[in-house]
Structure formats: structure tokens, C-alpha cells
Design brief:
The protein is an alpha/beta fold. It has two domains: about 1-80, no CATH class; about 90-275, no CATH class. The chain is about 45% helix and about 20% strand. The protein has ten helices and nine strands. A seven-stranded mixed sheet has the order 1-9-8-2-5-3-4, sandwiched between helices. It has a two-stranded antiparallel ribbon with strand order 6-7. α7 (about 145-155) links the parallel β3 (about 135-140) and β4. The relative contact order is 0.16.
């Protein structure tokens, strides 16, 4: 059954992206008004994060959130057939010199980003960089093995190396000991696991007490790798821009939580400016944390 669905999807995604957006709008309407997919959760997240907004403003924002949510899903599936040239045209970069400077001083760097804009297209970053750096993208394996294999096949065409989360420490040690240079893409806005609360950093984020994962800063201090922030901006449907900026170039001199706090403040600024681009369907502020 999966392969029948995938064959249909594979054929559908040959359509030009502008012709797929009417389908995206229809799916967003279905998801928002009919299926009401996580409507209560999204409204609670938005209401608590933007207490200054009226209910009318929250509802308008909700629709933009769902429209963006489905756009990103369609765009991610569309990338099955995207050429290298189209990836470079649809997602542009600035601040690449910051990464060049970091890797001129350090063996490697971590780039912290979020589920903001089209985070899936960021796996093609190496195609837009002039220098031939190794690019390691960290991911969590999908529960559906078929979908997981499809996504891995798509990402590997972009010349990056995919590392499953549970294999990260082994691969980092291996690369560090062998002198392998490059940068690691880290999506750092996930809700933390309840198993290791000692690895959380608590802060006020969008008017709420919020725990953040501290894995990236722990690894940065351990290996003395620079930490950058990738700011994703949506310029229009199917068009994004990523700006790289330095968060910390001397991690061994920082105190616990310092790098994570800088990341939280930078992400908060971006979400206040364009909240509809974030993945609000996550139950980030669970009451049982």
C-alpha cells in the first residue's frame, strides 16, 4: 500500500511547484476546518505565546500557521525531484563568511536552527556553499521505515551525511579523532525528553517557562567547536533565505546554559517577527514536564 501511495506522490510531484499550491490550500482548509488537526493545541500555544493578541487576531494567525504547515509538507515532498539549481534558487544564503571564519579556526562547527520556515530544504545547504565542507545533518529516524528510507534517499542526493541522533556521539568522536572537518546541522527547538531533566535549560520563552535541550552546547564545550545560528526567513511561497550568524566562537569559556540562552533569545526574536512560519503543532509546553 505504501509503494502505491509513493508512486502516486512521485508522479504528482513532477508538477511545477506553483501548480501544487492550490492543492496545498485545499489540504490546509481540510486540515483546519474539517479534520481540525490539533486545533486546540495550536490555539493554546498561540494564545499563551501572544497574550496581547485578541481572539480574532489569533484565529487569523492560526490560518496562516496551517497554510504554512501544509506548504512546507508539499515543498518537502516536491524536493523528491528538485534539481541542485532549483534548490539554490529557492533557498539563498548570507553570512557564509561567518562559517568560513569559524572553520578556519576550529575543526568543526555546530549550526543551530529550528522548525522554522522550510527546515527540510536546509539539508541542501552544501550545494550553495563555495567551499567543499563536510555537512552532517542530525535527524531522528521516522517510525515508518518506508518514509524514513525515502527521506534519507532524498537528503543524500544533496551531498550531506545523515547521522541518526542515537549514533551522534560515536560519529562525533570518530570524526574528531580522525581530524574530519565540517559542520553539523542541529534542530534545537524540540521538546526535551522527560528522562533527563538534568540536561534541560529553563528560560522564559514567548512569555512561558520553557525547557530547552542543552545537547548542542554540551557538545560544543566538549569538542571546542564554534556554534552558529541559522535564521530562516520566508520570502514567499517556495522562496526562503537563510542568514548565518555567530552565537559563540569560544564555547569552552562559556557557563552552563549560556549558549542555549543565546539561541532561545535569537529564535524568540524571529518568532515574534513572523510567528506563522514556526511549527506550532508540537506540544512544546506540556504540563507534565
Amino acid at each position: 500500500m505504501f509503494w502505491i501511495f509513493y508512486a502516486f506522490l512521485w508522479l504528482l510531484m513532477w508538477l511545477p511547484l506553483p501548480l501544487l499550491y492550490p492543492l496545498s490550500d485545499f489540504c490546509a482548509l481540510l486540515m483546519y476546518h474539517v479534520l481540525r488537526y490539533r486545533r486546540k493545541l495550536v490555539r493554546r500555544n498561540l494564545t499563551q505565546s501572544f497574550p496581547e493578541k485578541s481572539l480574532k487576531e489569533i484565529k487569523r494567525l492560526e490560518w496562516r500557521v496551517y497554510r504554512n504547515f501544509v506548504d512546507v509538507m508539499i515543498e518537502s515532498m516536491y524536493s523528491i525531484h528538485m534539481s541542485k539549481k532549483e534548490i539554490k534558487r529557492r533557498l539563498t544564503y548570507s553570512g557564509k563568511e561567518v562559517l568560513d571564519e569559524a572553520l578556519a579556526k576550529k575543526q568543526a562547527a555546530f549550526i543551530m536552527t529550528a522548525h522554522n520556515g522550510n527546515y527540510e530544504w536546509l539539508t541542501g545547504a552544501k550545494l550553495s556553499f563555495e567551499k567543499d565542507y563536510n555537512y552532517f545533518t542530525i535527524y531522528r529516524a521516522l517510525s515508518n521505515k518506508h518514509f524514513d528510507k525515502v527521506m534519507m534517499d532524498v537528503r543524500q542526493r544533496r551531498h550531506n551525511v545523515n547521522i541518526e541522533m542515537h549514533d551522534l556521539m560515536r560519529k562525533l568522536d570518530e570524526n574528531h579523532n580522525n581530524g574530519v572537518t565540517g559542520f553539523y546541522g542541529m534542530i534545537a527547538d524540540q521538546k526535551p525528553s522527560r528522562k533527563n531533566p538534568q540536561h534541560w535549560h529553563w528560560t522564559t520563552f514567548l512569555h512561558q517557562d520553557t525547557p530547552f535541550l542543552t545537547g548542542t552546547e554540551f557538545l560544543a564545550r566538549k569538542y571546542d567547536y564554534a556554534v552558529l545560528y541559522a535564521r530562516m526567513s520566508k520570502l514567499g511561497r517556495g522562496r526562503y533565505h537563510c542568514h548565518l550568524e555567530m552565537l559563540c566562537d569560544e564555547p569552552t569559556l562559556t557557563s552552563p546554559g549560556e549558549i542555549t540562552e543565546k539561541y532561545a533569545r535569537r529564535l524568540e526574536q524571529d518568532l515574534m517577527a513572523a510567528p506563522e512560519a514556526w511549527l506550532w503543532t508540537h506540544n512544546r509546553w506540556r504540563k507534565d514536564l
